[in-house]
Amino acid sequence: MNIEMIRAAAQRLxxxxxxxxxxNSAFVDxxxxxxxxxxxxxxxxxxxFKFRGGWSAVSALAAEVRSAGVIAYSSGNHAQGVAxxxxxxxxxxxxxxxxxxxxxxxxxxxxxxxxxxxxDRDHEDREAIGAALAEARGLxxxxxxxxxxxxxxQGTCGLEIAAQxxxxxxxxxxxxxxxxxGGLTSGVALALEQEAPDMRVRPVEPVDFDDVTRSLQSGRRxxxxxxxxxxxDAIVTRSPGEMTFPLMHELCGPGIVVPEEDCLRAISVAFxxxxxxxxxxxxxxxxxxxxxGEQLSGEHVICIASGGNIDAQMFTxxxxxxxxx
Amino acid sequence: MNIEMIRAAAQRLxxxxxxxxxxNSAFVDxxxxxxxxxxxxxxxxxxxFKFRGGWSAVSALAAEVRSAGVIAYSSGNHAQGVAxxxxxxxxxxxxxxxxxxxxxxxxxxxxxxxxxxxxDRDHEDREAIGAALAEARGLxxxxxxxxxxxxxxQGTCGLEIAAQxxxxxxxxxxxxxxxxxGGLTSGVALALEQEAPDMRVRPVEPVDFDDVTRSLQSGRRxxxxxxxxxxxDAIVTRSPGEMTFPLMHELCGPGIVVPEEDCLRAISVAFxxxxxxxxxxxxxxxxxxxxxGEQLSGEHVICIASGGNIDAQMFTxxxxxxxxx
Lengths: 325, 325
Description:
The structure is a homodimer. The first copy, chain A, is α/β, with parallel strands linked by helices. Chain A has 2 domains: 3-49 and 148-321, Rossmann fold; 50-141, 3-Layer(aba) Sandwich (Rossmann fold), CATH 3.40.50.1100. Chain A has 14 helices and 10 strands. Chain A has helices spanning 3-13, 26-32, 50-60, 63-66, 77-89, 103-111, 126-137, 148-167, 183-195, 211-218, 244-251, 260-274, 280-291, 312-321; strands spanning 22-23, 35-40, 70-73, 93-98, 115-119, 140-141, 173-178, 199-206, 256-258, 300-305. A 6-stranded mixed sheet of chain A has the order 1-2-10-7-8-9, with helices on both faces. A 4-stranded parallel sheet of chain A has the order 5-4-3-6, with helices on both faces. In chain A, α9 packs across α11 and α12 packs across α13 (280-291). The radius of gyration of chain A is 18 Å and the shape is globular. The A-B interface holds A 18, 20-21, 23, 26-27, 40, 42-43, 47, 104, 108, 111-112, 268, 271-272, 274-278, 308, 312, 315-316, 319-320, 323-324 and B 18, 20-21, 23, 26-27, 40, 42-43, 47, 84, 104, 108, 111-112, 268, 271-272, 274-278, 308, 312, 315-316, 319-320, 323-324. Chains A, B: InterPro entries: Ser/Thr_Dehydratase (IPR050147), Ser/Thr_deHydtase_PyrdxlP-BS (IPR000634), TrpB-like_PALP (IPR001926), TrpB-like_PALP_sf (IPR036052). Chains A, B: Its EC number is 4.3.1.16. Chains A, B: One of its GO terms (biological process) is isoleucine biosynthetic process. Chains A, B: Belongs to the serine/threonine dehydratase family.
């Protein structure tokens, strides 16, 4: 993994992925007590940054391999990113999704032309299911994070952050990244190491799913005991990736652990101040900036708002429970 | 009014206004039966395109005139745009707002440092109030639409649309613009006349507030009988502007009149498909594209999603009443 792979991915993504805006608001700065910048990846195609990694990986396959189709396992955002990337390449996609994934994500993945196969998160191993299907049908497995081309694709978000921060005169900041398996976190950290070396990436996780934070402390890959049941479904994995963890360990600052309810509060703030729809996992970095600023340093904080695939019911709950100031 | 004034405004807005993205979604194309492109002005500073006109007008004042302060009358979005532009210039702002304006807009305007004066929409004349205050305190009146520098500022949105459409290969399209007094509509029409002459601007208005549509038919400025009570509060004016109407009459295609409920449906679609928060008046152009396509022609339609300053209660009502497909 190196910066050249991220730059090559950025070239393949040119004209395909959106250069999402970097938003700010004086009202939000006031809540946080510092300047807050939000990289609005919820505005990315399919509603999350995952389209970057999906396109990067699918476009990197040799044409004759790609034509047989691709397969992915995902709670929903990677699913949609891979499904759309496959459709735009004109190749079939099979997506293995947990039965308790949000309905909207399952429906969207199907509507994007993918064949969806549901599995039981507690009793089945999605990696085994994915590998078996891949072999049986000659499909290329697009892993959600432990794959160089996927990490490179997510890293393009970091290249944009470096450029957009420079445009507004920011060289030094904590960069908060929601963290599941670590694909986005490690890709962005690699990009910023080169392009904005005074920025420090901080993984953000929900309480009870803080495997990355604990792993960074212990220096080895720790696991969560729970496998699901978080409203931050998009960023729940059992442990950091084999490939992503060494990168995070080398490049990232300490993790930040945030109660789920703070994600709902941040959703309400993003609604009223950025006019942006975020899902709980997509709001967790903003939640850290707003409500856990004592763990940050410096004048500026950049938060990746990684996704907005949320059911209306959950969104309404956030607005009603936490009316925005 | 001419294109050079819009280009000059664009230069003054450089680094101040956001270049908002032009979004699309295969799901939305399917509902509309053609390619739909959404210019996401809800992501503009203060949550609507009005910051463009506000900054343009305030920045065009001579420094010694500007220093005495500015005044504006507005149901809320122009208020916030002018208030922020004044604050960023370090000069005082007085905003005259109707008593029934959304609470959020009044609060935001105050929080942006402006002095807010409330009036009764049915029994008082906001223009008279504004003019009297302006004279008494030496303030410069920033009109909401009938002012060249305001029209020029809104027109910068048209310059961006022309450039962004060209980037994705679109030269010909109907461009749907929510229309109150006609500042945005006439500014965008002027910009596109020069920069994308095969595009045709179509004003969009709510049922019962179709003064512009009727004026374009009759060739003279018609008035609405109702003065308020629309959920599209941002785009309700009594009649088209003296300055904006001749421009619209010369440059625009026929108006489109949309039931209010369609705006709520479009809000729900923008929530699930674009991850964008829109207010009813800001969703009306998208509503026209989605549900009144028989009045359009051609493969592409571009909709300005002009603002997102909506109370949580109204937003929740839209999501609950019209679950997005």
